[in-house]
Design goal:
Layout lengths: L1 H4 L1 H14 L9 E5 L5 H9 L3 E6 L10 E3 L12 E7 L8 H11 E11 L3 H17 L11 H10 L3 E9 L4 E8 L1
Parallel strand pairs: 1-2, 1-4, 2-3, 4-5
Antiparallel strand pairs: 5-7, 6-7
């Protein structure tokens, strides 16, 4: 129900996200939407880039019709290099093992991983991130505590995993800084 109430907001934001990714995604590519949630962002990317898309998540919360695979384990039930790119949209802070998830994204991607993530870089954004984490964890009965990393911490994680930071850009700044990271595998 939550996603149905805010669907239009999600769709508008997803279009802005697609526009930010224009230089990194070619039409017709095969995209994995990792942690697809309601599927709104993935569906928008599918239509915007005329892409072949698969959504994967640990729970099926789709409110739009996209191809979907349930994955409750730490390893994705997908073949190596089976996607041109992996999209991870505001998901990493909701997982207890972001390094493992990024490692799996690297394994199944032939080319790139595109990450959108909230970055608590001021005391105001830290408060908003904590409120978001608390409310998400309660509303969706998230079994793991939501945790946010700084930009420096993310860059260190990417380096540890052998992911090349090709591009990063602040895509929004209030009340929480939102960052786009484009990673080469």
């Amino acid at each position: 129900m939550y996603y149905r109430l805010f669907r239009k907001l999600y769709e508008r934001e997803a279009i802005r996200m697609c526009q930010k990714c224009r230089d990194f995604i070619r039409d017709g590519q095969r995209i994995l939407d990792l942690g697809c949630g309601p599927g709104i962002v993935g569906k928008t990317f599918q239509e915007f880039f005329r892409a072949e898309l698969l959504g994967v998540d640990i729970v099926d919360r789709r409110v739009v019709d996209i191809p979907f695979k349930l994955s409750g384990s730490s390893s994705l039930p997908l073949k190596d290099n089976s996607f041109d790119l992996v999209l991870i949209s505001y998901v990493l802070h909701h997982t207890s093992q972001p390094k493992a998830l990024l490692g799996e994204a690297k394994r199944v991607s032939r080319d790139k991983i595109i990450v959108f993530e909230d970055i608590p870089d001021t005391w105001i954004s830290d408060i908003f991130c904590r409120l978001h984490g608390f409310s998400f964890d309660k509303l969706f009965r998230n079994p793991t505590k939501t945790t946010f990393y700084s930009e420096r911490e993310w860059k260190e994680v990417f380096k540890q995993l052998g992911l090349n930071l090709l591009f990063s850009q602040r895509v929004n700044n209030f009340p929480v800084r939102k960052e786009l990271f484009v990673l080469g595998v």
